[in-house]
Design goal:
This protein folds into two domains: 31 residues; 128 residues, Phycocyanins (Globin-like). By secondary structure, it is mainly alpha-helical. It has nine helices and no strands.
Length: 163
């Protein structure tokens, strides 16, 4: 949910007008709109390149994942992994656009550990894949844009790294 929606819903729940501080947070949100849309556009326009680079990094670090018996062994399994990488990258753009991590939480993290564990996919490997996505993605952004985008990747990494 965007900052605007959060402020409106909170004020309405409390039957009041938005406070000066809340209005300032909306102002800041609008002032960073161009940056957020630029970052999301760069990531979405380069999804294939980012996913390819990230997967190469991961396979170099963890060749056992693509070796016989590994979770990404074979064309079908590898394609499923790449699909997930693209899905997480898309989730990150949702968070960046909204200026909030809530879309990432609601759409992508609820039950993710349980799902991967039930499928026999190492969650630590998924966290590492997001680190690789982060590295590939931030390399395409300017320094200020990379600073803005990094926490959204870190949020997913943290969620997958928590016991």
């Amino acid at each position: 949910m965007s900052v605007v929606s959060q402020v409106i819903l909170k004020a309405d729940d409390e039957l009041r007008y938005p406070s000066a501080g809340e209005l300032n947070s909306i102002k800041a949100y609008f002032e960073t709109g161009t940056q957020r849309t630029r970052i999301a556009a760069t990531l979405s326009e380069n999804e294939k390149k980012i996913v390819e680079q990230a997967s190469k990094q991961l396979w170099q670090k963890r060749p056992d994942y693509i070796a016989p018996g590994g979770n990404a062994y074979g064309d079908r399994q590898r394609a499923l992994c790449l699909r997930d990488y693209g899905w997480y990258l898309r989730l990150i753009t949702y968070g960046i656009l909204s200026g909030d991590k809530e879309p990432i939480e609601k759409i992508g993290l609820v039950g993710v550990r349980e799902m991967y564990n039930s499928l026999g996919v190492p969650v630590a490997g998924m966290a590492e894949s997001i680190r690789c996505l982060k590295k590939a993605s931030l390399g395409l952004l300017t320094e200020p844009d990379a600073v803005e985008a990094a926490p959204y990747f870190d949020y997913i990494i943290q969620a997958m790294s928590t016991n």
